[in-house]
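Continuing from the previous page of notes. For each protein in this section, the sequence appears first, followed by its structure tokens. Read the first protein now.
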Amino acid sequence: MTQDRALPLARFKVLDLTRARAGPTCVRQLVDWGAQAIKIEMPGGRAGDGMGGNRHGFDFQNLHRNKKAMTLNLKHPEGVAIFKRLVRDADVVVENYRPDVKYRLGIDYETLRAINPRLVYGSISGFGQEGPYRDRPGVDQIAQGMGGLMSITGLPGQGPVRVGIPISDLCAGIFLAQGILVALLEREVTGEGKWVSTSLLEAMISMLDFQAARWTMCKEVPRQAGNNHPTGIPTGVFETKDGLINIAAAGDDLYRRFCRAIGREDLLSDPRFATSQARSANRDALMALLMPITRQKTSAEWIKLLNEAGVPCGPIYTIDQVFADPQVQFLGMAQTVHSPQLGDLSLVAHPVSMNGQRPPLRSAAPELGQDNEEILTALGYSKAEIEDLARRGVI
């Protein structure tokens, strides 16, 4: 389509071997910006294989939009041979098998590099391509636990708590997409591709950010802080006359604005709260003092008053309320795409814009093997040969 050619990654061809969530998240970053992707699946499909649930359901449609699809049995020698023919003209292969699977199938980086030295090969696994946990199955919740996130999430003393999204999957996918783009940029100089890899565990540890650096640099073990920011005080959830809001007044400048806005400038000179260090040491006392104040006005009143004072403050939404918010609607974070099978679908838009424009959703998630004939015909197969491949379970 014309709009595909106008997008910045339209010149790149991606072979998508991914399943579950981390791999498809990576490919989604590329295809949203126009990369041509072929989603490769087993003939006949496989129920419960972690592809994102029901093919016509919200998860699959959101994960696998903007792709073509073909079926290919990579356990069959002819299936591997067809895949290698596709690799000759591809720019990127993305897979998230357990590390040993690609070698057993004969589609590992070194094997494919011999066919196409310019190939960028992207891999995601649970724990890394090498090491003592290399062959363990890895999923998001395991990575959340092993990566330390569950130990710092939740209320103090509550015990470990899972984050409400598959954050290690999502971040691993985004990090791998970034690595693939870096490798493609380097290829413009060297003419050669690279094997780019990450894991759920590596992504999870990286996302700990300052919480991890508290340990690596200062040997502090972060604990659960509930809805309060672990180091920036006062930042957290506050009760109002009619509900709950978030207020972020950490740092001396914001704290001064906050105290003036609530009419309590005396808190600026109170030695218990006069400095960031003092506020950290006396967090509970400060929150106990502030809560009766915030209960005196409605959420809407505080949100207006504090934002006008330059103090970050906002509502705590349910997901339906998120998409009803006027700013979210202005940003266009829900986009419509047409599915020949399902009609118009509203999916989550790409979060990055260029010159004020975010990439459009161009096609719904493909049906199983819907582009087999087109792809194989382009490789030189006749209609009779394609029918024979289907009959023998190769496609």
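Done with the first. The second protein uses the same format. Note its length before scrolling.
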Amino acid sequence: MISLAGRDVLHAWGKFIFTGIGLGLLIGVTLTMAGLYRGMVEDGKVLLDNSGADLWVVQQGTLGPYAESSSVPDDLWRSIRTLPGVAQAANITYLTMQVGRGEHDVRAMVVGITAEQAGAPGWPPQLIAGRQITRGHYEAVADIATGFALGEVLRIRRNPYTVVGLTRRMVSSSGDPMVFIPLKDAQEAQFLKDNDAILMQRRRTEANPAFNRPGVPGLLEAVVASQTSNRQVNAVLVRLRPGFTPQEVAEPIRRWKRLTVYDRDQMEGILVGKLIATSARQIGMFLVILAVVSAAIVAFIIYSLTMDKIREIAVLKLIGTRNRTIAAMILQQALMLGVLGFVVGKISATFAAPIFPKYVLLMPNDTVAGFLAVLAICVLASLVAIRMALKVDPAEAIG
């Protein structure tokens, strides 16, 4: 029967090959979509790993610096540093924005780190070229995905920064490459208003009679100073001492500092369960649609091949060939088509993954599951052709 199925495929090899290539491209898209989801999850985990933190201290009632806005005082880290079990505590800011590169912009996450605390949480763990930030202003470490080179000057807001170091796979949860700059510069870029906004706010404040009471000297100056200050950060990253659990250190911070504290598992749950959840559902819908389309293509081509050999099937029945033999021939053709399509799809996905705009992670387990799913789809798609072939009247062979 293997020979019979193979001979029939060779008889219509052109249609079979081109259908397998078309099916393979669909399978390649399916594998790429699954790899895209895996890549999004991996980006989230890499973001947490590269932060070097065991705890994230953020504004009360917020989901942390990655999922939504958070603002805490930049002197908070000092009181956290004195708590039992805390080895290091460092301020951090995150701002996703367009970074200027000549006449073009690069989408990146700008990270503000404390330049005077080398190796503190939030710092890039390792560089592939150059050095870490050593000055308090106007130096940057960039991920190579941004396209920046050592010594190149980039622009954030109105200030130029010289790239002194390069790193790899430092990305946000959405896959944007990171650019690290000193914390004070990042605070200015994120929290400080521009000159026109400050001037207009000053005029509004001066025009407010409540701030011009003669019995309260210096009130206007204090209000203006508070409006133009940038004494905020997005989070405090905490690294624990050996022997202490995250719960032991987090509970006093929640109780006495009135802040929200997340450990690694909780933060990963936020990234995967909330930020990536919508994208995961969209990818799941695409996978279902692609599976249905693939099944329809296999069913159509197998049905077409079966219709082309109705007389041959009738002759087989006339000479006493059993129904299960005919069904096996059609099933083998469907499986051959599925294997051909999967090989083409796997090759196309492997070559397309490195040039995809986002990180695509092709997992061996997904490949095996995809192969089994393709075979299952081919089996189901062949049932229509098998049912039609079994209804063929042997008399048609001499009709």
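What the second structure shows: The mean pLDDT is 84. The chain has two domains: 2-44+278-397, 60-192+230-258. We return to this in next week's lecture.
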